[in-house]
Write a structure and sequence with these properties.
Keywords: Calcium, Hydrolase, Metal-binding, Signal. One of its GO terms (cellular component) is cytoplasm. Its cofactor is Ca(2+). Pfam families: Sulfatase. The protein has 493 residues and is an alpha/beta fold. It has two domains: 33-422, Alkaline Phosphatase, subunit A (3-Layer(aba) Sandwich); 436-493, Arylsulfatase, C-terminal domain (2-Layer Sandwich). The protein has 14 helices and 18 strands. Strands 5-4-7-1-9-12-2-13 form an eight-stranded mixed β-sheet. Strands 15-16-17-18 form a four-stranded antiparallel β-sheet, covered by helices on one side. Helix 7 runs parallel beside helix 10 and helix 8 (253-260) packs across helix 10.
Length: 493
């Protein structure tokens, strides 16, 4: 009798266990099973935010997100230019392996161009998730073009898809600017740097409302798409690529007025440096300016330009906030991984440089924050050396998509151990590339070496613990340090 009672109790416990497991499975199936992904790319956003310790920057939405997830203080891109940086992130490939060390057209031009025939493995991150059953939507600039279609700046071209097989939907709104590059180089009232009118002002702060400019339209579209995806029974991958603070500096008038009342520091080390990688900042100086185009700019001009950049950051921060609030209101927060990524850094008059296009700290370090529900430690600031190519394997490990085969081996490392706090580092050095130069960043040094036929021919060594700006080249004084850092450069596979 006792044995029968024990067996009966055991059977009851098994039934309860199975009921709980099946209930959980049913609940996960109803909610989409795997986590959603909201990937937000912000063009030209260096670590110029309040959460990075800069109290003069007004970025409350991004600061709040950083406090809820993990903020990476030593994130470095693979290449300091838009297209090549995004190519590395989206393919998960190091420039050492792909050969893409500069090109903005790598997705569709040259030996590394993506195939227009579907390959056995996924060519890009969103394609992998699409082949895993995710609904994938592109809004704004995720690859290089402003809307995911290939056109030239002047509008010529066939409009083919820049990332083949990646997106279920290209949802970028054009507004009165009518086309992709029009909304990217936009001024108020439907005007664009590329519309033939000749307008090319460095900055403009005239409009009253956020949606009078393209980035406000992107935020509105993202909210509409989130509402639609809420009704679906599938997980989603949304790529949302904001344009500002990329040139020209255009934002609502209220953002300029707000930043004009803030004391901001002058550019540190504003003098030209002695380096073969210093450039004339052609992208910046090609705009029309209300002040004299001196090199370097005189201090009042530098300060006004720095304010203009920060006004655009303030504008974009507000758009990010709108989208994140909608995510919360739709009840999607607890099952959505949010990533905010800057495609590279930007010079703000430091070293008499503007824009990017150099293998220095300011151009290679950019914003990265990840909020992964039930995984990431809220408020963690990680000083780990991480790279943009780490995002691909990280999202695979976090989401466990059904399809995981990639066309090429992934070169990055998963950051999940950093997110959970189980590790404080995943590598000892971060590598970046620019033309024939390779830049090695450790905790205290940045080595830049130019190579010919795979061998280093010229070295610059900077102590990053003293200043992020390339002021004193220590290569001749510290040859053993140079040799030690050169060993981090791998051979091409």
């Amino acid at each position: 009798m006792l044995f029968k009672n024990i067996r009966f109790c055991f059977q009851i416990l098994v039934l309860i266990f199975l009921y709980l497991v099946l209930s959980v499975d049913a609940q996960e199936s109803k909610s989409g099973q795997r986590p959603n992904i909201l990937f937000i790319a912000i063009d030209d956003l260096r670590t110029e935010l309040g959460c990075y310790g800069l109290p003069y920057v007004q970025s409350p939405s991004l600061d709040q997100l950083a406090s809820e997830g993990v903020l990476f203080t030593n994130h470095f891109v693979q290449v300091p230019t838009c297209g090549a940086s995004r190519f590395a992130l989206l393919t998960g490939r190091s420039p050492m392996q792909s050969g893409v060390t500069r090109s903005n057209q790598a997705f569709y031009h040259g030996k590394s161009a993506l195939s227009t025939s579907q390959t056995e493995g996924a060519q890009t991150l969103p394609e992998l998730f699409r082949r895993s059953g995710y609904l994938t939507t592109c809004i704004g600039k995720i690859s290089h073009t402003a809307d995911g279609r290939v056109f030239e700046y002047n509008g010529s071209g066939d409009g083919r898809i820049e990332l083949p097989f990646a997106w279920d939907k290209l949802a970028t709104p054009f507004g009165s600017w009518k086309r992709g590059w029009g909304i990217f180089f936009a001024y108020a009232n439907g005007q664009s740097r590329e519309d033939g009118s000749g307008i090319r002002d460095l900055m403009e702060f005239n409009v009253e409302h956020d949606e009078d400019l393209p980035d406000g339209l992107l935020a509105r579209q993202a909210i509409q798409e989130l509402r639609a995806m809420k009704r679906q029974q599938k997980p989603f991958f949304m790529g949302l690529g904001f344009f500002k603070p990329h040139l020209p500096f255009v934002a609502p008038k209220k953002d300029w007025e707000a930043m004009s009342r803030v004391n901001i520091p002058p550019a540190p080390h504003p003098e030209k440096i002695s380096s073969s990688y210093w450039h004339k900042s052609g992208e910046f100086y090609n705009y029309n300016m209300e002040f004299e185009k001196t090199r370097p700019l005189i201090e009042p001009a530098r300060l006004k330009t720095r304010r203009a950049y920060l006004a655009c950051v303030r504008y974009i921060d507000r758009q990010v906030g709108k989208v994140l609030r909608e995510l919360d209101e739709l009840g999607l927060r607890e099952n959505t991984i949010v990533v905010v990524w800057g495609d590279h850094g930007w010079f703000l008059g430091d070293s008499a440089l503007w824009a990017k296009h150099a293998p220095f700290e300011r151009a290679l370090k950019s914003t990265l924050m990840i909020r992964a529900p039930r995984v990431s430690q809220a408020g963690l600031k990680s000083a780990a050396l991480v790279e943009s190519i780490d995002l691909y394997p990280t999202l695979i490990e976090l989401c466990q998509p059904a399809f995981q085969k990639t066309q090429y081996p992934l070169d990055g490392l998963s950051l999940k151990p950093i997110l959970t706090g189980s590790k404080t580092a995943v590598r000892d050095a971060s590598l970046s590339y620019w033309n024939s130069a390779i830049s090695v960043r450790t905790k205290t040094y940045r080595l830049i070496t130019t190579t010919e036929k795979g061998k280093p021919t010229k070295n610059e060594l900077y102590d990053i613990s003293k200043t992020p700006d390339p002021i004193e080249n220590l290569a001749d004084e510290q040859p053993t340090t140079v040799e030690r850092l050169l060993k981090f450069i791998p051979a091409k596979k």
